[in-house]
Design brief:
The chain is α/β, with parallel strands linked by helices. Helix content is 27%, strand content 19%. The strands form 3 sheets. A 6-stranded mixed sheet has the order 4-3-2-1-11-12. A 6-stranded mixed sheet has the order 5-6-7-8-10-9, with no helix packed on it. A 3-stranded parallel sheet has the order 13-14-15, covered by helices on one side. The protein is globular and about 70 Å long. The relative contact order is 0.15.
Length: 437
């Protein structure tokens, strides 16, 4: 029997709501998974993509991740993973670096056998490039086989990747397909294989209301998939329907009925009542111990122009609009550099010029306009559509994020796993960080 933790969409480094505490929460959730793996006698941790929220994680996020992976390594628990759309870069992947350090295994078309189960990997690939994919894998002699993949697969909502077609085209009979990208946990059986999403380990958007966790998968006869919860920061979701004459006092009353201590408080206002100033509600909740407060008034606004944007999370509003534009991969890259990257303001102009010149020389196809992203899983837009910067798949938006992210698995060709460019190494085997960026 082989017993593994199936996790994914950890989005380490996501500073949600611009809160440093929320940033730490995403790493803490991953650390919980690692602790459970070490204490629970598991054969491996299988990560289905989007380990990081940003393809250029900051040093603190890298150091925290390395520490967690070393904990697994010290306990002889292998970390098997694939590359998601959020963390995908145009050169070598961070996962390649972790593999070179002996802390991870990047899954691909060759089997990695753990116990009596062979694991294969399928990195995230944009929809526009999936017709060229070859789903043939190297054979194995294990008792069971599992495919780990990142994308929005059928038969689940907002899917754009045909699971049956993948299974039919594969020369390997899979007992299970372990998925990432959709932050909603779900399981179904397709052509004899269990197909399952583990969900995200932290709430990457207000749409992710259910508790977070991961899957425990056992391969013994038929694959068995079970859910295990994580202890993450509490969210208080408050929906207030104001009757005529009711206003901020009613909202405060409803908010006050919740335990707000160290919680992220999400307030949605509807109905026919009086106008409510968000600041008044935010101050009320903060005084009662809330970490973050976001107030959204869903009522119609009397104006000549139709308003459809909420600024409960301005970054999300920007990401959604960018996703709708169908920008080219080059445009997305420039947007990240100007708007969301860690490049110092004084260096932005030079950095953009260098990136554009490189794309002109090496990737002229990056300037081709992508099809506008369609609506998808509520959250995958927050996590996926910002693959150029921030990310999920059960929140506002979906995996068409690959179109918005433009850089997701950009080097993937006809192979199942994204092409892995070779990196130069010094005589002592050390690889420069530039080769991995």
């Amino acid at each position: 029997m082989t017993r593994v933790i199936h996790t994914g969409d950890t989005h380490i480094g996501y500073q949600q709501y611009h809160s440093p505490e929320r940033r730490r929460d995403f790493l803490a959730a991953f650390e919980q998974v690692v602790a459970d793996a070490v204490d629970g006698d598991f054969d491996a941790v299988v990560h289905a993509g989007d380990l990081f929220h940003d393809r250029r994680p900051e040093l603190q996020d890298l150091l925290g991740t390395l520490s967690a992976l070393r904990t697994l390594s010290d306990a002889d628990v292998p970390f098997l993973a694939i590359v998601g759309n959020h963390e995908s870069t145009r050169g070598g992947q961070w996962l390649d670096l972790f593999e070179r350090l002996g802390l991870a295994v990047r899954l691909g078309r060759e089997p990695r056998v753990i116990g009596d189960t062979a694991f294969y990997g399928l990195d995230h690939v944009p929809p526009s490039r999936r017709d060229e994919l070859d789903y043939r894998f190297e054979p194995h002699d294990a008792s069971h086989a599992a495919l780990v993949a990142h994308g929005l697969f059928t038969p689940f909502a907002h899917a754009n990747w045909d699971t049956e077609a993948v299974l039919d085209a594969s020369n390997v009979a899979f007992d299970a397909v372990l998925l990432g990208d959709n932050h909603v946990t779900d399981t179904a059986k397709v052509k004899g294989a269990w197909v399952t999403y583990c969900g995200s380990t932290e709430r990457a958007s207000a749409a992710e209301r259910a508790g977070r966790g991961y899957n425990v998968v056992e391969f013994d006869g038929d694959a068995d998939v079970r859910r295990r919860a994580l202890d993450t920061r509490p969210f208080a979701f408050v929906e207030v329907d104001l009757a005529e004459g009711e206003g901020v006092d009613r909202v405060r009353e409803q908010v006050g009925q919740h335990d707000l201590s160290d919680a992220v408080v999400v307030v949605e206002i509807a109905g026919d009542g009086e106008p409510v100033t968000p600041a008044a509600v935010e101050e009320f909740a903060t005084d009662r111990g809330a970490l973050v407060v976001r107030v959204t008034d869903r009522r119609e606004v009397d104006t000549e122009a139709e308003l459809s944007v909420t600024f409960a999370d301005p970054d999300e509003a920007v990401r959604e609009r960018i996703a709708e534009l169908g920008l080219s991969a080059a445009a997305i890259d420039v947007d990240e550099t100007v708007r969301a990257s860690k490049v110092a303001d004084a260096n932005v102009r030079d950095d953009v010029r260098t990136r554009v010149e490189r794309l002109v020389d090496e990737e002229p196809g990056a300037f081709a306009r992508a099809p506008p992203a369609r609506d998808g899983p509520e959250d995958e837009r927050e996590a996926d559509d910002e693959s150029a910067d921030e990310g999920t798949a059960d929140g506002p938006g979906a995996d068409e994020a690959s179109a918005s992210d433009g850089a997701a698995a950009p080097d993937a060709g006809a192979d199942v796993d994204a092409e892995r460019p070779s990196a130069s190494a010094s005589d002592d085997g050390q690889v420069s960080m530039e080769d991995f960026l």
